[in-house]
Amino acid sequence: MSWKDAWLAATRSLGRRAGRTALTVLAVALAAALLSALLIISTSARTRVLDQLAKGGPLAGIQVAAAAPGPAALDTDSPSPGRARDLDATTLRQIRGLRGVRSVVPIESNPVLVEVPATTLDPFRETLVGIDLRRVKTLPITVIVGRTPAIGSRTEIAVTDGYLRRLGLDRKTAAKVIGTEVELGAPRVFPSRNGRTDVRGRWTRAEIVGVVAQQVVSAQFLGSAEMVRDARAWSAASDPAGGFQLPSSRYAGVFVVADGLDHVGAVRARITRLGYSTSAPENLIETVRRYLRVVEIVLAGIGIIALAIASLGITNALLAAIRERRREIGVLKAIGARDRDVRRIFLLEAGMTGLVGGALGTVIGYGIARILGAVVNQYLVEQGLPGVAIGLPLPVLVGGVLGAAALAVIAGVVPAQRAARLPARQAMGDG
Question: Are residues 201 and 343 in the same domain?
């Protein structure tokens, strides 16, 4: 008997027992769906973290603090960073030249006076932070709603939770501020007249295009580096005798991305030796990475147990089929079928059942993972954390289908062997 004949015989046999076959396929599909969904979710989450750690990114970042503003600088609602040496272009070049550094993103800032039209809010003092928006993905900035300002824009800003709280809003109602405008005034002190200080502002009307969670520096407004430079150029021309003093450094801080988690400690030490204070969450991230491995192993174990239970169902279904098909087996042997031919038919039945169930289950599992991923991402974004993109991991999908088929074939070995050893005379007599 050829493989083609065995395949046709197995297909006809499965078709004659459509109800039992459907139930067996469903059991395999449910188990494969559970396994693939768990593996897709855990693999996507682990890849999200490990890729950023291995290739560099916000999770492998180091925050370098600039000097704290002097007492005469404008106050903000948030505490200033800890005392450190000033950051300038020379020290940025030094940091970029350190071994293990992937990228350096300077954070610029300028104090501003803020007015919110069409509200009862009194004008308040805050800090406008500017970054190179082409490199925003390398910073610990998460968009909660809306988007980040356009690259180089001088009329668009994003706001943080602090601004929402001023308006009595929270993240669930953050969308209300999108499209609204604020007036930002960069202060400048002119020579005093008659003993009175003359302070004028360079006012800019800016549209709020997004709400973000950011850990780059304490501030409520995020814009482009160009926008901050314009404001600083105006404020820097203040009369020194007026009592207003800008921070000595144009940079509020620097975000340094290491080549990977393994390099964060060494890079921090090198930056510290240059005289700057640093902070990085590498210990926390390493702990999270270990827990992700444990979770992945546990989830895979649960899915494998489900597949093992499904394989027992295949074994039971095939054993029942042997009892029902003894006469058929006897006829096959009477017309010349060998033991290996009968064994081949039963193994093909098991393999087809596992293959169809595995394919169906893997597709269902991918759909479940996408739904769960959407729910989880909504929660993460509400918490100001980066979401987890559920991709299409081909190794998991292919492995789920082929793994289910292989496990089904293994489950069919014992029934196939029993059917192959059934004597033709006994089979015909039992019929």
Answer: no
